[in-house]
Queue: 2 jobs
Job 1
Amino acid sequence: MELVFLGTTAAVPTAQRAHPGIALCYRDEVLLWDCGEGTQRQLILAKVNFMRITRVFITHLHGDHFLGLPGLLQTLGFQGRERRLHIYGPPGIEELVERVLSLGEFELEYEIEVERLAPGMRVRGSGYEVEAFEVEHGTPAFGLAFRELKGRRFLREKAEALGIPPGPLYKRLQRGERVVFQGRVVEPEEVLGEEKRGFRVTYSGDTRPVDATAERAGDAVLIHDSTFDAGEAEKARSRMHSTCTEAARVAREGGAKMLFLTHISPRYRDAGVLEAQAREVFPESHVARDLLRVDLLALRKERGWWK
Ligand SMILES: [Zn+2]
Ligand SMILES: [Zn+2]
Protein backbone atom coordinates (compact mmCIF):
# COMPACT_ATOMS: atom_id res chain seq x y z
CA MET A 1 0.00 0.00 0.00
CA GLU A 2 1.73 3.05 -1.25
CA LEU A 3 0.95 6.62 -2.13
CA VAL A 4 2.99 8.11 -4.96
CA PHE A 5 2.93 11.81 -5.80
CA LEU A 6 3.31 12.10 -9.57
CA GLY A 7 2.82 15.83 -9.96
CA THR A 8 2.51 18.55 -7.33
CA THR A 9 2.37 21.90 -9.13
CA ALA A 10 -0.54 24.31 -9.53
CA ALA A 11 -1.77 25.19 -13.03
CA VAL A 12 1.57 25.35 -14.85
CA PRO A 13 4.52 22.95 -14.68
CA THR A 14 7.99 23.87 -13.46
CA ALA A 15 11.35 22.13 -13.76
CA GLN A 16 10.70 20.53 -10.36
CA ARG A 17 6.96 19.96 -10.40
CA ALA A 18 4.72 18.29 -12.95
CA HIS A 19 0.95 18.68 -13.28
CA PRO A 20 -1.27 17.07 -10.60
CA GLY A 21 -1.50 13.32 -10.31
CA ILE A 22 -1.48 10.87 -7.40
CA ALA A 23 -1.15 7.10 -7.67
CA LEU A 24 -2.65 5.09 -4.86
CA CYS A 25 -1.28 1.57 -5.08
CA TYR A 26 -3.42 -0.91 -3.20
CA ARG A 27 -2.76 -4.65 -3.54
CA ASP A 28 -2.54 -5.25 -7.30
CA GLU A 29 -4.48 -2.13 -8.27
CA VAL A 30 -3.46 1.43 -8.95
CA LEU A 31 -6.04 4.16 -8.49
CA LEU A 32 -5.08 7.32 -10.30
CA TRP A 33 -6.31 10.55 -8.72
CA ASP A 34 -6.15 13.30 -11.36
CA CYS A 35 -4.18 12.95 -14.52
CA GLY A 36 -2.40 16.15 -15.45
CA GLU A 37 -0.28 16.53 -18.54
CA GLY A 38 2.86 14.38 -18.32
CA THR A 39 1.32 11.89 -15.88
CA GLN A 40 2.39 8.90 -17.96
CA ARG A 41 6.04 9.98 -17.91
CA GLN A 42 5.84 10.50 -14.16
CA LEU A 43 4.35 7.01 -13.77
CA ILE A 44 7.35 5.60 -15.63
CA LEU A 45 9.82 7.57 -13.52
CA ALA A 46 8.02 6.42 -10.38
CA LYS A 47 8.04 2.81 -11.65
CA VAL A 48 4.30 2.47 -11.24
CA ASN A 49 2.89 -0.16 -13.59
CA PHE A 50 0.36 1.45 -15.95
CA MET A 51 -1.39 -1.81 -16.58
CA ARG A 52 -2.46 -1.98 -12.96
CA ILE A 53 -4.47 1.22 -13.23
CA THR A 54 -8.07 0.17 -12.74
CA ARG A 55 -9.78 3.47 -11.96
CA VAL A 56 -9.00 7.05 -12.86
CA PHE A 57 -10.67 9.80 -10.85
CA ILE A 58 -10.69 13.33 -12.26
CA THR A 59 -11.55 15.73 -9.43
CA HIS A 60 -12.64 18.61 -11.70
CA LEU A 61 -12.34 19.72 -15.29
CA HIS A 62 -9.51 22.26 -15.09
CA GLY A 63 -6.86 21.37 -17.67
CA ASP A 64 -4.07 20.82 -15.15
CA HIS A 65 -6.06 17.86 -13.78
CA PHE A 66 -7.03 15.98 -16.92
CA LEU A 67 -4.80 16.90 -19.89
CA GLY A 68 -2.74 13.76 -19.35
CA LEU A 69 -5.70 11.55 -20.25
CA PRO A 70 -5.35 11.52 -24.08
CA GLY A 71 -1.76 10.30 -23.95
CA LEU A 72 -2.34 7.83 -21.15
CA LEU A 73 -5.35 6.21 -22.83
CA GLN A 74 -3.46 5.82 -26.09
CA THR A 75 -0.38 4.40 -24.39
CA LEU A 76 -2.52 1.83 -22.59
CA GLY A 77 -3.79 0.86 -26.05
CA PHE A 78 -0.24 0.53 -27.43
CA GLN A 79 0.63 -1.69 -24.50
CA GLY A 80 -2.14 -4.10 -25.42
CA ARG A 81 -4.46 -3.42 -22.55
CA GLU A 82 -7.63 -5.51 -22.61
CA ARG A 83 -8.90 -4.91 -19.11
CA ARG A 84 -11.69 -2.40 -18.78
CA LEU A 85 -10.79 1.03 -17.42
CA HIS A 86 -13.12 3.06 -15.22
CA ILE A 87 -13.01 6.82 -15.39
CA TYR A 88 -14.88 8.98 -12.87
CA GLY A 89 -15.33 12.70 -12.89
CA PRO A 90 -17.68 15.64 -12.32
CA PRO A 91 -20.60 16.46 -14.63
CA GLY A 92 -19.21 16.84 -18.14
CA ILE A 93 -16.79 13.91 -17.79
CA GLU A 94 -18.74 11.83 -20.35
CA GLU A 95 -18.40 14.50 -23.04
CA LEU A 96 -14.79 15.10 -22.13
CA VAL A 97 -13.82 11.43 -22.50
CA GLU A 98 -15.75 11.26 -25.78
CA ARG A 99 -13.71 14.16 -27.12
CA VAL A 100 -10.48 12.63 -25.92
CA LEU A 101 -11.38 9.42 -27.75
CA SER A 102 -11.94 11.28 -31.02
CA LEU A 103 -8.63 13.12 -30.81
CA GLY A 104 -6.45 11.93 -33.67
CA GLU A 105 -6.38 8.48 -35.22
CA PHE A 106 -6.20 5.48 -32.96
CA GLU A 107 -8.28 2.58 -31.82
CA LEU A 108 -8.48 1.04 -28.39
CA GLU A 109 -8.98 -2.65 -27.73
CA TYR A 110 -10.14 -2.12 -24.18
CA GLU A 111 -13.41 -0.78 -22.89
CA ILE A 112 -13.73 2.48 -21.02
CA GLU A 113 -16.55 2.95 -18.59
CA VAL A 114 -17.25 6.53 -17.63
CA GLU A 115 -19.20 7.41 -14.53
CA ARG A 116 -20.22 10.79 -13.23
CA LEU A 117 -19.39 11.51 -9.60
CA ALA A 118 -22.07 12.76 -7.23
CA PRO A 119 -21.70 13.98 -3.64
CA GLY A 120 -21.56 11.01 -1.28
CA MET A 121 -21.11 8.50 -4.08
CA ARG A 122 -19.04 5.49 -3.08
CA VAL A 123 -17.04 3.52 -5.59
CA ARG A 124 -16.44 0.05 -4.24
CA GLY A 125 -13.45 -2.03 -5.25
CA SER A 126 -11.92 -5.18 -3.88
CA GLY A 127 -11.21 -4.44 -0.22
CA TYR A 128 -11.76 -0.69 -0.41
CA GLU A 129 -14.11 2.11 -1.24
CA VAL A 130 -13.58 5.64 -2.50
CA GLU A 131 -16.12 8.23 -1.47
CA ALA A 132 -16.53 11.39 -3.53
CA PHE A 133 -17.44 14.56 -1.65
CA GLU A 134 -18.21 18.03 -2.87
CA VAL A 135 -15.64 20.77 -2.34
CA GLU A 136 -15.55 24.50 -3.17
CA HIS A 137 -13.60 25.53 -6.23
CA GLY A 138 -15.95 27.68 -8.28
CA THR A 139 -16.64 24.78 -10.65
CA PRO A 140 -18.08 21.33 -9.88
CA ALA A 141 -15.20 19.75 -7.96
CA PHE A 142 -14.79 16.74 -5.73
CA GLY A 143 -12.53 15.49 -2.99
CA LEU A 144 -11.86 11.77 -2.65
CA ALA A 145 -11.70 9.62 0.47
CA PHE A 146 -10.13 6.17 0.23
CA ARG A 147 -10.98 3.74 2.95
CA GLU A 148 -9.80 0.18 3.27
CA LEU A 149 -12.66 -2.16 4.17
CA LYS A 150 -11.53 -4.84 6.54
CA GLY A 151 -14.83 -5.99 7.95
CA ARG A 152 -15.82 -6.21 11.58
CA ARG A 153 -13.83 -7.68 14.44
CA PHE A 154 -14.65 -11.29 15.32
CA LEU A 155 -15.27 -11.67 19.04
CA ARG A 156 -13.84 -15.10 19.64
CA GLU A 157 -14.68 -15.14 23.35
CA LYS A 158 -18.36 -14.62 22.53
CA ALA A 159 -18.31 -17.45 20.01
CA GLU A 160 -16.62 -19.67 22.57
CA ALA A 161 -19.16 -18.73 25.20
CA LEU A 162 -21.89 -19.88 22.82
CA GLY A 163 -20.05 -23.20 22.58
CA ILE A 164 -19.30 -22.87 18.88
CA PRO A 165 -16.14 -24.79 17.94
CA PRO A 166 -13.44 -22.94 15.96
CA GLY A 167 -13.47 -23.75 12.26
CA PRO A 168 -15.80 -23.23 9.31
CA LEU A 169 -18.64 -21.83 11.43
CA TYR A 170 -16.36 -19.02 12.62
CA LYS A 171 -15.55 -18.17 9.01
CA ARG A 172 -19.19 -18.01 8.01
CA LEU A 173 -20.13 -15.83 10.98
CA GLN A 174 -17.19 -13.57 10.18
CA ARG A 175 -18.55 -13.15 6.66
CA GLY A 176 -21.82 -11.99 8.20
CA GLU A 177 -23.77 -15.23 7.63
CA ARG A 178 -26.20 -16.64 10.12
CA VAL A 179 -25.40 -20.22 11.15
CA VAL A 180 -27.26 -23.02 12.91
CA PHE A 181 -25.38 -24.75 15.70
CA GLN A 182 -26.92 -27.56 17.76
CA GLY A 183 -30.38 -26.51 16.68
CA ARG A 184 -29.86 -22.88 17.64
CA VAL A 185 -29.66 -20.01 15.17
CA VAL A 186 -26.62 -17.83 15.78
CA GLU A 187 -26.76 -14.36 14.26
CA PRO A 188 -23.46 -12.73 13.16
CA GLU A 189 -24.42 -9.74 15.32
CA GLU A 190 -23.84 -11.90 18.40
CA VAL A 191 -20.18 -12.44 17.65
CA LEU A 192 -19.12 -9.42 15.60
CA GLY A 193 -17.68 -6.27 17.13
CA GLU A 194 -16.68 -2.90 15.75
CA GLU A 195 -15.42 -2.23 12.23
CA LYS A 196 -11.69 -2.97 11.91
CA ARG A 197 -9.56 0.03 11.10
CA GLY A 198 -7.96 0.17 7.68
CA PHE A 199 -5.89 2.60 5.66
CA ARG A 200 -7.41 5.99 5.03
CA VAL A 201 -6.25 8.52 2.51
CA THR A 202 -8.22 11.68 1.79
CA TYR A 203 -7.53 14.07 -1.07
CA SER A 204 -9.11 17.51 -1.15
CA GLY A 205 -8.57 18.19 -4.85
CA ASP A 206 -8.51 21.94 -5.66
CA THR A 207 -10.60 23.73 -3.08
CA ARG A 208 -11.14 26.29 -0.38
CA PRO A 209 -10.92 24.76 3.09
CA VAL A 210 -14.31 23.08 3.71
CA ASP A 211 -15.91 21.04 6.49
CA ALA A 212 -16.54 18.15 4.10
CA THR A 213 -12.79 17.56 3.86
CA ALA A 214 -12.23 17.85 7.62
CA GLU A 215 -15.07 15.39 8.22
CA ARG A 216 -13.18 12.81 6.17
CA ALA A 217 -9.69 13.60 7.43
CA GLY A 218 -9.99 11.72 10.74
CA ASP A 219 -7.42 8.94 11.09
CA ALA A 220 -6.30 9.61 7.51
CA VAL A 221 -3.31 10.74 5.59
CA LEU A 222 -4.66 14.00 4.19
CA ILE A 223 -3.52 15.49 0.90
CA HIS A 224 -4.68 19.08 0.64
CA ASP A 225 -4.60 21.98 -1.79
CA SER A 226 -1.90 24.38 -0.61
CA THR A 227 -1.47 26.69 -3.56
CA PHE A 228 -0.42 29.72 -1.49
CA ASP A 229 1.43 30.63 1.70
CA ALA A 230 -0.27 32.18 4.71
CA GLY A 231 0.45 35.73 3.52
CA GLU A 232 -1.61 35.23 0.35
CA ALA A 233 -4.90 34.42 2.07
CA GLU A 234 -6.80 36.95 -0.01
CA LYS A 235 -5.51 35.50 -3.27
CA ALA A 236 -6.33 31.98 -2.08
CA ARG A 237 -9.89 33.11 -1.37
CA SER A 238 -10.43 34.89 -4.69
CA ARG A 239 -8.94 32.02 -6.73
CA MET A 240 -10.81 29.34 -4.79
CA HIS A 241 -7.71 27.60 -3.47
CA SER A 242 -6.23 27.16 0.00
CA THR A 243 -3.17 28.43 1.84
CA CYS A 244 -0.84 26.03 3.65
CA THR A 245 -2.21 27.27 6.97
CA GLU A 246 -5.80 26.68 5.92
CA ALA A 247 -4.84 23.16 4.85
CA ALA A 248 -3.17 22.60 8.22
CA ARG A 249 -6.30 23.77 10.03
CA VAL A 250 -8.40 21.25 8.12
CA ALA A 251 -5.92 18.53 9.12
CA ARG A 252 -6.00 19.58 12.79
CA GLU A 253 -9.75 20.01 13.02
CA GLY A 254 -10.39 16.74 11.20
CA GLY A 255 -7.89 14.77 13.28
CA ALA A 256 -5.67 13.71 10.37
CA LYS A 257 -2.62 11.59 11.04
CA MET A 258 -0.40 13.35 8.54
CA LEU A 259 -0.77 16.17 6.03
CA PHE A 260 0.75 16.48 2.58
CA LEU A 261 0.57 19.89 0.98
CA THR A 262 0.24 19.79 -2.77
CA HIS A 263 -0.83 21.93 -5.76
CA ILE A 264 2.05 24.29 -4.97
CA SER A 265 2.11 27.57 -6.91
CA PRO A 266 5.17 27.87 -9.21
CA ARG A 267 6.06 31.09 -7.37
CA TYR A 268 7.51 28.96 -4.53
CA ARG A 269 10.82 27.65 -5.78
CA ASP A 270 11.54 26.67 -2.23
CA ALA A 271 8.36 25.43 -0.64
CA GLY A 272 9.99 25.23 2.79
CA VAL A 273 8.09 28.35 3.86
CA LEU A 274 4.78 26.54 3.26
CA GLU A 275 5.90 23.60 5.36
CA ALA A 276 7.13 25.81 8.20
CA GLN A 277 3.91 27.84 8.32
CA ALA A 278 1.74 24.72 8.20
CA ARG A 279 3.71 23.07 11.01
CA GLU A 280 2.86 25.91 13.35
CA VAL A 281 -0.72 24.71 13.11
CA PHE A 282 -0.27 21.01 12.44
CA PRO A 283 3.19 19.57 13.20
CA GLU A 284 2.82 16.54 10.92
CA SER A 285 2.74 18.71 7.78
CA HIS A 286 4.92 17.92 4.77
CA VAL A 287 5.22 19.55 1.38
CA ALA A 288 4.77 16.88 -1.27
CA ARG A 289 7.28 16.73 -4.10
CA ASP A 290 7.15 14.92 -7.40
CA LEU A 291 7.86 11.18 -7.18
CA LEU A 292 7.62 11.19 -3.39
CA ARG A 293 6.50 7.79 -2.15
CA VAL A 294 4.65 7.31 1.10
CA ASP A 295 4.79 3.72 2.27
CA LEU A 296 1.53 3.37 4.20
CA LEU A 297 2.32 -0.17 5.27
CA ALA A 298 5.55 1.04 6.89
CA LEU A 299 3.64 3.83 8.66
CA ARG A 300 1.21 1.26 9.99
CA LYS A 301 4.10 -0.77 11.36
CA GLU A 302 6.27 2.05 12.67
CA ARG A 303 3.58 4.22 14.15
CA GLY A 304 0.91 1.66 14.92
CA TRP A 305 -1.65 3.48 12.77
CA TRP A 306 -4.75 1.78 11.38
CA LYS A 307 -4.45 -1.19 13.70
ZN1 LIG B 1 -5.43 22.71 -10.34
ZN1 LIG C 1 -8.67 23.78 -10.43
Job 2
Amino acid sequence: MTSIPISTERLVIRPWRDDEAPRLLDILRRDEIVRWLGHPRTLETVEEARAKIAGMAMELPMSEWAFEVAATGVPAGSVMLVPIPRSEQPDGSSLVQIGWYAHPDATGHGYVTEAARAVLEYGLASGLREIRALTHTDNYPSMRVCDRLGMTYLGVTEDWYDDAPSSHYVVRAGQWPARGQQVTR
Ligand SMILES: CC(C)(COP(=O)(O)OP(=O)(O)OC[C@H]1O[C@@H](n2cnc3c(N)ncnc32)[C@H](O)[C@@H]1OP(=O)(O)O)[C@@H](O)C(=O)NCCC(=O)NCCS
Protein backbone atom coordinates (compact mmCIF):
# COMPACT_ATOMS: atom_id res chain seq x y z
CA MET A 1 0.00 0.00 0.00
CA THR A 2 1.14 3.54 -0.67
CA SER A 3 2.68 5.27 2.31
CA ILE A 4 4.18 8.66 3.08
CA PRO A 5 6.49 9.86 1.57
CA ILE A 6 4.84 9.51 -1.83
CA SER A 7 6.81 10.21 -4.99
CA THR A 8 4.92 11.31 -8.08
CA GLU A 9 6.24 12.28 -11.49
CA ARG A 10 7.52 15.68 -10.29
CA LEU A 11 6.85 15.81 -6.54
CA VAL A 12 7.55 14.26 -3.17
CA ILE A 13 4.72 14.41 -0.64
CA ARG A 14 6.14 14.31 2.87
CA PRO A 15 5.88 16.11 6.21
CA TRP A 16 6.93 19.75 6.46
CA ARG A 17 10.29 20.10 8.19
CA ASP A 18 10.83 22.48 11.07
CA ASP A 19 13.53 24.34 9.12
CA GLU A 20 10.99 25.05 6.37
CA ALA A 21 8.94 27.33 8.62
CA PRO A 22 10.10 30.45 6.72
CA ARG A 23 8.77 28.95 3.47
CA LEU A 24 5.44 28.08 5.10
CA LEU A 25 5.27 31.58 6.57
CA ASP A 26 5.84 33.03 3.10
CA ILE A 27 2.65 31.26 2.01
CA LEU A 28 0.42 31.75 5.03
CA ARG A 29 1.36 35.41 5.62
CA ARG A 30 -0.60 36.23 2.43
CA ASP A 31 -4.20 37.29 2.85
CA GLU A 32 -4.94 36.36 -0.78
CA ILE A 33 -4.22 32.73 0.18
CA VAL A 34 -5.48 32.55 3.75
CA ARG A 35 -8.86 34.10 2.93
CA TRP A 36 -9.86 30.89 1.17
CA LEU A 37 -8.72 28.48 3.88
CA GLY A 38 -11.05 29.00 6.83
CA HIS A 39 -7.92 29.87 8.85
CA PRO A 40 -8.52 32.36 11.63
CA ARG A 41 -5.91 34.77 10.23
CA THR A 42 -2.61 35.09 8.39
CA LEU A 43 0.57 33.98 10.13
CA GLU A 44 2.93 36.76 11.20
CA THR A 45 6.09 35.09 12.52
CA VAL A 46 8.38 32.12 11.89
CA GLU A 47 7.50 30.89 15.38
CA GLU A 48 3.83 30.71 14.38
CA ALA A 49 4.76 28.78 11.24
CA ARG A 50 6.92 26.42 13.32
CA ALA A 51 3.99 25.83 15.69
CA LYS A 52 1.72 25.12 12.74
CA ILE A 53 4.16 22.53 11.39
CA ALA A 54 4.37 20.93 14.84
CA GLY A 55 0.56 20.61 14.90
CA MET A 56 0.12 19.07 11.44
CA ALA A 57 0.52 15.40 12.33
CA MET A 58 -2.71 13.47 13.00
CA GLU A 59 -3.70 9.87 13.09
CA LEU A 60 -2.95 8.61 9.56
CA PRO A 61 -4.24 8.77 6.92
CA MET A 62 -5.15 12.24 8.17
CA SER A 63 -2.44 14.90 8.21
CA GLU A 64 -1.10 17.90 6.36
CA TRP A 65 1.98 17.42 4.17
CA ALA A 66 4.32 19.48 2.05
CA PHE A 67 4.49 18.71 -1.65
CA GLU A 68 8.07 19.28 -2.64
CA VAL A 69 9.21 19.86 -6.21
CA ALA A 70 11.67 16.98 -6.53
CA ALA A 71 13.95 18.88 -8.92
CA THR A 72 14.55 21.70 -6.41
CA GLY A 73 13.76 20.21 -2.99
CA VAL A 74 11.56 23.23 -2.25
CA PRO A 75 7.98 22.78 -0.97
CA ALA A 76 5.49 24.18 -3.48
CA GLY A 77 2.67 24.09 -0.94
CA SER A 78 0.56 21.95 1.31
CA VAL A 79 -1.97 19.19 0.78
CA MET A 80 -4.02 17.69 3.60
CA LEU A 81 -6.61 15.16 4.64
CA VAL A 82 -8.47 16.62 7.63
CA PRO A 83 -11.85 16.25 9.36
CA ILE A 84 -14.68 18.51 8.23
CA PRO A 85 -15.61 20.69 11.22
CA ARG A 86 -18.95 19.83 12.88
CA SER A 87 -19.49 16.79 10.64
CA GLU A 88 -19.68 14.12 13.35
CA GLN A 89 -21.50 10.98 12.21
CA PRO A 90 -23.62 8.65 14.37
CA ASP A 91 -20.62 6.30 14.75
CA GLY A 92 -18.50 9.14 16.19
CA SER A 93 -16.32 9.59 13.10
CA SER A 94 -16.10 12.81 11.10
CA LEU A 95 -16.32 13.29 7.36
CA VAL A 96 -12.92 13.80 5.71
CA GLN A 97 -11.93 16.54 3.31
CA ILE A 98 -8.89 17.13 1.15
CA GLY A 99 -7.42 20.63 1.13
CA TRP A 100 -4.53 22.41 -0.59
CA TYR A 101 -2.67 25.67 -0.96
CA ALA A 102 0.41 26.65 -2.93
CA HIS A 103 3.04 29.37 -2.90
CA PRO A 104 2.34 31.89 -5.70
CA ASP A 105 5.74 31.07 -7.22
CA ALA A 106 4.58 27.45 -7.70
CA THR A 107 1.06 27.82 -9.11
CA GLY A 108 0.15 27.23 -12.73
CA HIS A 109 2.21 24.06 -13.20
CA GLY A 110 -0.32 21.42 -12.19
CA TYR A 111 1.59 20.59 -8.99
CA VAL A 112 -1.49 20.91 -6.76
CA THR A 113 -3.51 18.56 -8.95
CA GLU A 114 -0.61 16.08 -9.07
CA ALA A 115 -0.17 16.14 -5.28
CA ALA A 116 -3.90 15.94 -4.57
CA ARG A 117 -4.38 12.99 -6.94
CA ALA A 118 -1.68 11.06 -5.07
CA VAL A 119 -3.16 11.95 -1.67
CA LEU A 120 -6.69 10.93 -2.75
CA GLU A 121 -5.27 7.59 -3.88
CA TYR A 122 -3.42 7.25 -0.59
CA GLY A 123 -6.48 8.10 1.52
CA LEU A 124 -8.77 5.68 -0.32
CA ALA A 125 -6.12 2.93 -0.27
CA SER A 126 -5.78 3.52 3.48
CA GLY A 127 -9.43 2.69 4.05
CA LEU A 128 -11.30 6.00 3.75
CA ARG A 129 -14.60 5.28 2.00
CA GLU A 130 -14.98 8.81 0.67
CA ILE A 131 -13.09 12.09 0.61
CA ARG A 132 -14.77 15.43 0.09
CA ALA A 133 -13.56 18.85 -1.00
CA LEU A 134 -15.22 22.13 0.01
CA THR A 135 -14.31 25.38 -1.70
CA HIS A 136 -15.78 28.85 -1.62
CA THR A 137 -18.22 29.05 -4.50
CA ASP A 138 -16.09 31.79 -6.15
CA ASN A 139 -12.75 29.99 -5.70
CA TYR A 140 -12.44 29.12 -9.36
CA PRO A 141 -8.78 27.92 -9.32
CA SER A 142 -9.64 25.46 -6.55
CA MET A 143 -12.80 24.27 -8.28
CA ARG A 144 -10.74 23.70 -11.44
CA VAL A 145 -8.41 21.49 -9.38
CA CYS A 146 -11.45 19.45 -8.23
CA ASP A 147 -12.61 19.15 -11.83
CA ARG A 148 -9.17 18.11 -13.10
CA LEU A 149 -9.07 15.45 -10.38
CA GLY A 150 -12.36 14.02 -11.59
CA MET A 151 -14.09 14.66 -8.26
CA THR A 152 -17.90 14.47 -8.38
CA TYR A 153 -19.64 17.83 -7.88
CA LEU A 154 -22.50 17.52 -5.35
CA GLY A 155 -23.71 21.12 -5.44
CA VAL A 156 -23.56 24.03 -2.99
CA THR A 157 -23.76 23.30 0.74
CA GLU A 158 -24.01 25.47 3.85
CA ASP A 159 -23.82 22.48 6.18
CA TRP A 160 -20.41 22.88 7.79
CA TYR A 161 -18.88 26.33 7.29
CA ASP A 162 -20.66 29.42 8.61
CA ASP A 163 -18.69 32.09 6.76
CA ALA A 164 -19.88 31.30 3.23
CA PRO A 165 -21.56 28.59 1.14
CA SER A 166 -19.24 25.91 -0.23
CA SER A 167 -19.01 24.07 -3.53
CA HIS A 168 -19.04 20.43 -2.47
CA TYR A 169 -17.14 17.60 -4.22
CA VAL A 170 -16.53 13.96 -3.37
CA VAL A 171 -14.56 10.91 -4.47
CA ARG A 172 -15.75 7.50 -3.29
CA ALA A 173 -13.76 4.29 -2.99
CA GLY A 174 -14.26 2.14 -6.07
CA GLN A 175 -15.83 4.95 -8.09
CA TRP A 176 -12.94 7.28 -8.68
CA PRO A 177 -11.22 7.51 -12.08
CA ALA A 178 -7.86 5.81 -12.39
CA ARG A 179 -4.60 7.78 -12.31
CA GLY A 180 -4.16 10.09 -15.26
CA GLN A 181 -7.82 10.15 -16.24
CA GLN A 182 -9.05 13.72 -16.34
CA VAL A 183 -12.60 14.99 -16.31
CA THR A 184 -13.49 18.40 -17.66
CA ARG A 185 -16.75 20.32 -17.67
C1 LIG B 1 -6.22 26.74 -5.37
C2 LIG B 1 -4.77 26.68 -5.77
C3 LIG B 1 -4.04 25.69 -4.89
C4 LIG B 1 -4.70 26.23 -7.24
O1 LIG B 1 -3.38 26.29 -7.70
P1 LIG B 1 -3.05 25.98 -9.23
O2 LIG B 1 -1.61 26.24 -9.45
O3 LIG B 1 -4.04 26.69 -10.11
O4 LIG B 1 -3.35 24.41 -9.36
P2 LIG B 1 -2.41 23.37 -10.09
O5 LIG B 1 -1.07 23.32 -9.45
O6 LIG B 1 -3.17 22.11 -10.17
O7 LIG B 1 -2.19 24.01 -11.52
C5 LIG B 1 -3.24 24.06 -12.44
C6 LIG B 1 -3.01 25.19 -13.40
O8 LIG B 1 -1.74 25.01 -14.01
C7 LIG B 1 -1.92 24.79 -15.43
N1 LIG B 1 -0.94 23.75 -15.79
C8 LIG B 1 0.26 24.01 -16.35
N2 LIG B 1 0.93 22.85 -16.52
C9 LIG B 1 0.15 21.86 -16.06
C10 LIG B 1 0.32 20.44 -15.97
N3 LIG B 1 1.45 19.85 -16.36
N4 LIG B 1 -0.68 19.71 -15.42
C11 LIG B 1 -1.83 20.29 -15.02
N5 LIG B 1 -2.03 21.65 -15.06
C12 LIG B 1 -1.04 22.42 -15.59
C13 LIG B 1 -3.37 24.39 -15.59
O9 LIG B 1 -3.87 24.73 -16.87
C14 LIG B 1 -4.04 25.18 -14.49
O10 LIG B 1 -4.27 26.51 -14.85
P3 LIG B 1 -5.81 27.04 -15.01
O11 LIG B 1 -6.54 26.67 -13.74
O12 LIG B 1 -5.63 28.50 -15.21
O13 LIG B 1 -6.36 26.28 -16.16
C15 LIG B 1 -4.06 28.05 -5.63
O14 LIG B 1 -4.73 28.99 -6.42
C16 LIG B 1 -4.03 28.52 -4.18
O15 LIG B 1 -3.13 28.21 -3.41
N6 LIG B 1 -5.06 29.34 -3.80
C17 LIG B 1 -5.17 29.88 -2.44
C18 LIG B 1 -5.53 28.82 -1.43
C19 LIG B 1 -6.81 28.08 -1.79
O16 LIG B 1 -7.70 28.63 -2.40
N7 LIG B 1 -6.86 26.82 -1.38
C20 LIG B 1 -8.04 25.99 -1.61
C21 LIG B 1 -9.10 26.25 -0.60
S1 LIG B 1 -10.57 25.30 -0.97
